[in-house]
Design a protein that fits this description.
Chain lengths: 264, 184
């Protein structure tokens, strides 16, 4: 059951996009999202599609991975399209049968909204496909640093996220072991109605929690023994540093996306 | 921040993600794409142990991890999840920490479940048209038979499980010095 779960989405490649500073990628994604909501025409979408394809090309990621990321949302995308086709009225009638009809405006709106969803998912999935989780965490901490001034614990959040990242594979393995052990003793995790399903989860949940707390306890002890005392005065083993290509990509992308959002 | 608190929150956030991807099934036939998942349990435990602020922080971590690892629904799914779980754990944790008793834990969970349902009803009406482009009247159609029952059911299952798990964990946590004696 757990074998078909893909943990993580990062795909290692030797490409320009992979080498970019994670802060650049996060900022560009944010501009992309703003831009896509400002666009109101199909010509705007064409230009945006070029931007996406260029990024995919530079990242050397096979297009099938992008398509795979769209798959979970297929239901909503098709749902949106169909709803607009039959509910949105305006313009010439393209097709009609009894009380059902498809009109020009419905087709336009349906296509428009569906494309928006597709572009959004495709581009944001590029971030996770080309950036490792640790890099992302690092980038997020640096981007959150300015908010320290208003009391946001940026370092602590980043540390907790790093701890969480480290323990995901470990706890997943543990969950699998516990599941198998309990099944070997007759537990049934899939049958029964809602109440039975919930009750049957207890033999899995309690050991998982005990394990998690025990590991957290040990980790705290180990960190303390290695003189961890908080974010102040710490140095960093992997330092994020902007290179020339980072500045160039940032400027080009932000200008491009701003122009697209404003004029198209 | 206390080191043990930090490691506990980190590890429980990881556990949240794992529960989210390993335990999930549809519960309302009208909206089959809304899946119940048990990821709220560890966050609720954090809310009871460390308070509403820490729980919202853990929810933020979970939502980011959700986006990084799972990708379901992209940034929108993660954001909606942050709204839903953040509301539930904040209200529950806040009420419980006014006066730490089993009774206030139950009150907190009930209030949190209701608050989450209300917030998600508004969020779906306001944000789904923006995020997914689905017309608002269509969202309103599915609101009463689908979205509201889903959130209520999910919240109450998670609340019930939290109480059961918390009860079993209490002795273990006391021996670890993580959980202090209840007021009653």
């Amino acid at each position: 059951m757990l074998n078909d779960i893909m943990i993580g989405q990062y795909i290692e490649r030797d490409s320009l996009i992979h080498k970019l500073d994670p802060r650049v990628k996060i900022l560009v994604i944010m501009f992309f999202i703003i831009s896509i909501f400002l666009i109101e025409s199909f010509s705007g979408y064409s230009v945006l599609a070029l931007f996406i394809l260029l990024t995919v090309f530079l990242s050397k990621i096979n297009l099938k991975y992008i398509l795979r990321s769209i798959k979970p949302l297929l239901f909503i995308i098709i749902f949106t399209l169909v709803i607009h086709l039959f509910m949105t009225k305006g313009g010439r009638v393209l097709w009609q049968w009894r009380f059902l009809s498809i009109e020009e405006e419905g087709l336009r709106m349906g296509s428009f909204m569906s494309l928006r969803l597709i572009f959004l998912i495709a581009y944001t999935s590029l971030l996770t496909l080309t950036t490792s989780p640790l890099e992302l965490t690092d980038g997020l901490e640096r981007l959150l640093n300015p908010f320290k001034r208003i009391g946001l614990p940026a370092h602590e959040l980043a540390m907790m996220m790093t701890i969480a990242l480290r323990f995901i594979p470990t706890l997943l393995e543990e969950a699998e072991k516990i599941m198998k052990a309990q099944k070997a003793r007759g537990a049934d995790f899939e049958g029964g109605n809602l109440i039975q399903k919930a009750k049957n989860l207890i033999p899995l949940l309690v050991p998982l929690f005990v394990n998690a707390f025990r590991r957290a306890d040990e980790l705290a002890l180990a960190m303390e023994a290695r003189c961890y005392r908080g974010g102040e005065n710490r140095t960093r083993m992997n330092v994020l540093a902007f290179a020339r290509k980072d500045y160039i990509v940032t400027v080009i992308s932000i200008i491009y996306l701003s122009l697209v959002g404003i004029f198209l | 921040m206390d080191l043990k608190k930090m490691t506990n929150i980190g590890v429980l956030s990881a556990l949240s993600l794992i529960l989210m991807i390993t335990i999930k099934f549809p519960i309302i036939p009208v909206v089959p794409y809304l899946l119940y998942e048990a990821g709220d349990l560890p966050i609720l435990i954090i809310a009871f142990l460390y308070g509403p602020g820490s729980a919202v922080g853990a929810t933020l971590i979970l939502s980011i991890l959700m986006f990084i690892f799972v990708g379901l629904g992209g940034p929108f799914g993660a954001f909606m999840h942050f709204l839903a779980t953040g509301t539930l754990v904040f209200v529950a944790g806040y009420i419980y920490h006014q006066n730490r008793t089993q009774k206030t834990a139950v009150y907190g969970l009930i209030a949190g479940s209701i608050a989450m349902t209300v917030i998600m009803a508004f969020a779906n009406v306001l944000l789904t048209p923006i995020f997914y482009g689905i017309p608002r009247q269509e969202v309103l159609k599915v609101l009463v038979p689908g979205i509201i029952p889903f959130n209520i059911t999910k919240a109450f299952i998670n609340s019930g499980l939290t109480l059961l798990v918390y009860k079993k964990l209490a002795e273990f946590l006391k021996s670890k010095g993580v959980l202090y004696s209840l007021n009653n």
